[in-house]
């Protein structure tokens, strides 16, 4: 079923009563590479994150935002719309292909997530409400971390403790950069260990899938997400939904950001 997202609903989210007297600070270029870990200069350069957080008040939900760029480009970012919304926002950088393999990039994402959880108290972050999001390649990383538990387990964290996964136009079959590593054309879809769909499971955290218009999205991105939703439902996952932004193409970040905030509020309330 199509979900019709109306613009006036976004306007409500934009002005939804966020406290204005809280002060915020942004700290940039925090390394999440372990000091005792042997790391290349490239890893030390790329494996950094920026944190935007409130400097007073009670601890707030944490949102890790993974940037897009096909796993071959892009850089860490904190979307301006998410700032000063009573959240701890983390913009994560990671290594890129072809300098490293896709699996190495997923491991970077897991390491960053674990680092943020372990250091959350410094930034007034609520570790019981950790959300992972991101656009395109970033959404792919969010899904891989939540569905294939082994990546976060290797970093000492249980993926089932995540409060929610909210990916924007994520690849759910094997990522095209992973296919390229294997000499497979971008137009040839496959599902293997580097596909979120391969790891469909009942007890995954709540998942809200966001995509652009099925007629405007790149390749079959809407259909991939619809298939993931269907398969999660079949295995008994009870907290998954799909929202399609009609009239928007793959670059559907802005209409998605107010919905991201709304979904975080809903999921935090349900967890109380």
UniProtKB/TrEMBL annotation:
<dbReference type="InterPro" id="IPR050300">
    <property type="entry name" value="GDXG_lipolytic_enzyme"/>
</dbReference>
<dbReference type="Pfam" id="PF20434">
    <property type="entry name" value="BD-FAE"/>
</dbReference>
<keyword id="KW-0378">Hydrolase</keyword>
<dbReference type="GO" id="GO:0016787">
    <property type="term" value="F:hydrolase activity"/>
</dbReference>
<dbReference type="InterPro" id="IPR029058">
    <property type="entry name" value="AB_hydrolase_fold"/>
</dbReference>
<protein>
    <submittedName>
        <fullName>Lipase</fullName>
    </submittedName>
</protein>
<feature type="domain" description="BD-FAE-like">
    <location>
        <begin position="49"/>
        <end position="151"/>
    </location>
</feature>
<dbReference type="InterPro" id="IPR049492">
    <property type="entry name" value="BD-FAE-like_dom"/>
</dbReference>
